[in-house]
Amino acid sequence: MFWKRTSDLSSNTIEVTIESAWRRDYSSTYFTAALGSSGESLMKINGKQTPKIDFGDGTEAKYLEAVRITAYSEQENWFLGEETFTHTFDTPNNAGRPWNVSFTGCCRMRNLLQGQADKPWDMTTRVDLVEADTSPRIVSLPVIHVRKVTTPNANQNSTFRLHTSELDPSITWSLGHAAAGQFIRRDGTVELNTKAAGIPADCTPANGVAVCAVNVMAYAHFGKSLSIPVDLVVMMIPDPYPEFIDFPPRQVCVQCVEYTYT
Q1: Any domain includes 246
Q2: Which of 73, 126, 136, 215 allows an S-S link to 116, with CB 3.0 to 4.6 Å?
């Protein structure tokens, strides 16, 4: 989810874009396919709890009626789509505080571990048009694969990095909900303990590949009090290659010297 003020910088009108990923093989009247005026593929998406966007100012919620498909993976069984909503606030912020724009619905994937299977989601972005005219855009894929450690006494953590399309060093990150063995650094590096509580040693095979699926939710923070969320599925896949058990000491530069090559 990301947002920006429209081209009229004197107004309090924003465009909020919801990027969401769904299972391709999900067959239900909840999903209805259609073609847009330009021939693009559109999806009307519903669910056990209808996905909706609430702008936090008491106005009527909006729904995913025309999601434009932007990417898909047959092998990983998902498609990614986006829909942009235009909304005008009465004031640039909520009496000095950000507007809380939320995206809620149900349900997450059925095979997620750590108590997240079939659970609803609740993601919030903060909007203050006095502080910023646009938010960053998170560009990480909806499904991320990491290596699941299986060798006893080995380093049991796997890491991956979250990114925004803007290379802004002032952007910091935090986790959206607490889960056993999940940590995040301020630079967006997520560290997962692949042997944490709730993650079995032997993963359940899916499509012939053994995987353990966990949910990771994070927030990218910018400005004084603004943030945008991302909700990901991380697949832990056992690797047949042995892990390194003993690592050499880290090299640390105590006194760095700048070299000039001619």
Answers
A1: no
A2: 215
Neighbours of 224 (CB within 10 A): 9
Cα dihedral sign for 178, 182, 186, 188? negative
**Residue type at 258?**
E
- How much is the pTM? 0.83
Instruction: Quote the number of domains for the chain.
Output: 1
Question: Per residue in 46-83, pLDDT tens?
Answer: 877 889 999 999 999 999 989 998 888 888 788 889 99
* Any domain includes 258: no
Q: Is residue 39 part of a domain?
A: yes
Q: How far apart are the first and last CA of the chain?
A: 48
Nearest 5°: the CA angle 112, 117, 120 is 130
State the residue range of the domain holding 83. Answer: 2-238
Residue 105 lies in a domain: yes
Q: Contact at 8 Å (CB) between 195 and 201?
A: yes
Q: Furthest-apart CA pair in the chain: how many Å?
A: 68
| Residues forming a β-bridge with 192 | 158, 182
